[in-house]
Amino acid sequence: MINLSKAAASEIKRLQSRRQNLETRLRLGVQRGGCAELYYTIDFDEAMNSSDRVYECDGIPVIVDENSFNYITGLTLDYSEDLMGGGFRFHNPNAIESCGCGNSFRVEV
User: Which CATH number characterizes residue 101's domain?
Assistant: First the structure.
């Protein structure tokens, strides 16, 4: 299960409307690297693979690839703004450590 806060859903819808393609889906994933072993990826994608999992969050289709699923199941994606600008924040119950940047994390193996 993947969750979006109201602020994240609102920002994703705003970004989708700027792309002028409401058919794109939000793709969340994980790659090796970053400050703490793994880092989050977030992008819009029109393509889907047969092994992708799709979640409907506040009317937004969210795609997670099979390899990333175990790392981010239960994740809540939030969005906030401050004096430095806005950005997405990842709240991951599987992370045992997160980097100060907020985009890199480590899980117990």
Answer: 2.60.300.12
Say whether pTM exceeds 0.85: yes
- The token pair that represents 4 in the structure block: 């979006």
Q: Which domain range does residue 80 map to?
A: 3-107
Q: Hey, what are 62's tokens?
A: 């969210």
Closest to 71 (Cα-Cα) out of 49, 50, 98 = 98
- What is the C-alpha to C-alpha distance for residues 75 and 16, in angstroms, rounded to an integer? 21
Are 76 and 9 in contact by the 8 Å Cβ rule? The answer is: no
pLDDT per residue over 43-94, tens digit each? Answer: 999 889 999 999 999 899 999 999 999 999 999 999 998 878 889 999 999 9
Count Cβ atoms within 10 A of the Cβ of residue 51 and give its class: 0-12 exposed, 13-18 middle, 19 or more buried.
exposed
Q: How open is the CA angle 24-77-91, to the nearest 5 degrees?
A: 150
DSSP 79: E
Report the distance separating Cα 106 and Cα 44, nearest Å. 24
